[in-house]
Specification:
By secondary structure, this protein is α+β, with helices and mostly antiparallel strands. It is 42% helix and 17% strand. A three-stranded antiparallel sheet has the order 5-9-6.
Length: 229
C-alpha cells in the first residue's frame, strides 16, 4: 500500500549549507516555514507563544531562542529583531517569504535550488532523538542527492572537511551525529578506503581516497517517528 504523501518543508540549499546558520537556528527556521504554510501563507507575520516554541523545538533557554531569532534577522531570513521576549502576549515574527513564488512573482527559473524533508522531522520526539545537528545533517546530505536516479546512485559523497566548511561543525561533532543517524537507521554509509592509484617515477606507490557515500533513508524517518510516538 502506498503511503499518503506527507507535507514537506523546503529550505534553500544555500541556507542548508551556510556556516553562518547554526543548527538550533536552522531548526527554528524550518519550524517558522512550517508555521507559515500551516497558517495559510496569507501573512508574513507568525504569532506563537515563545514558551511553546521552546518546548516543541527542545530549546532549553530564552537566551538561546533569542539568539537564534536574531541570527535569522542578521541573515535577513526574518524581519524581526528581538531585544526582550514578550510577556503575557504572543511572540510575533515576520518571516522573509522569498521562497513563496506566489508572493514574489518569480518563476521556477528564478528559484534557488531547494531540499525538502517531511515535517515530522521537526517533532519534539525526533529532535530529542537525533538533535538539532542530526536534522541539519539530514538536510545537508539530502541537498546533494539526486532522487531522479536509481537508488544505488542516490547518495551524497562528501568529506568531513567540506561539511565543516559548509555548515561550520567540528569534525568530532560531525562524526558523533553521523553515528547517531546511522544507529537510528536514518542514513546508510558506504565506506571507501585508500586504493592504489599507481607508482611515481621513484617507484613509490600513491593512493586515492574516495569520500564515503551517504544514503538518506527517507522511509525510515516515518518508521522512527511512529516508534517514538
Amino acid at each position: 500500500m502506498t503511503k499518503k504523501k506527507m507535507f514537506q518543508i523546503q529550505i534553500a540549499d544555500k541556507i542548508i549549507r551556510s556556516p553562518q546558520i547554526d543548527c538550533v537556528t536552522f531548526v527554528l527556521y524550518a519550524k517558522l516555514i512550517q508555521l507559515y504554510h500551516l497558517r495559510g501563507s496569507q501573512s508574513d507575520t507568525i504569532e506563537i507563544d515563545h514558551a511553546a516554541l521552546k518546548y516543541f523545538l527542545n530549546i532549553k533557554s530564552n537566551q538561546k531562542l533569542k539568539t537564534a531569532i536574531n541570527t535569522l534577522y542578521d541573515a535577513k531570513l526574518i524581519r524581526t529583531k528581538i531585544d526582550i521576549l514578550p510577556k503575557n502576549q504572543p511572540l510575533q515574527i515576520e518571516i522573509n517569504s522569498f521562497f513563496d513564488l506566489r508572493k514574489t512573482g518569480k518563476t521556477k527559473e528564478d528559484r534557488f535550488t531547494y531540499t525538502q524533508m517531511p515535517y515530522i522531522l521537526l517533532e519534539r520526539s525526533m529532535i530529542e532523538k537525533i538533535g538539532h545537528t542530526g536534522i541539519r545533517l539530514l538536510y545537508y546530505f539530502e541537498s546533494y542527492i539526486n532522487r531522479t536516479k536509481p537508488y544505488h546512485h542516490q547518495f551524497c559523497f562528501t568529506s568531513l572537511r567540506l561539511i565543516h566548511k559548509e555548515i561550520g561543525l567540528s569534525e568530532n561533532t560531525i562524526l558523533k551525529y553521523i553515528d547517531i543517524l546511522k544507529k537510528s537507521k536514518l542514513i546508510t554509509i558506504k565506506k571507501h578506503k585508500l586504493e592504489l592509484a599507481g607508482y611515481d617515477e621513484l617507484d613509490k606507490a600513491y593512493f586515492t581516497k574516495y569520500n564515503n557515500h551517504y544514503y538518506v533513508e527517507l522511509e525510515n524517518i516515518h518508521t522512527l517517528y511512529e516508534k517514538l510516538k
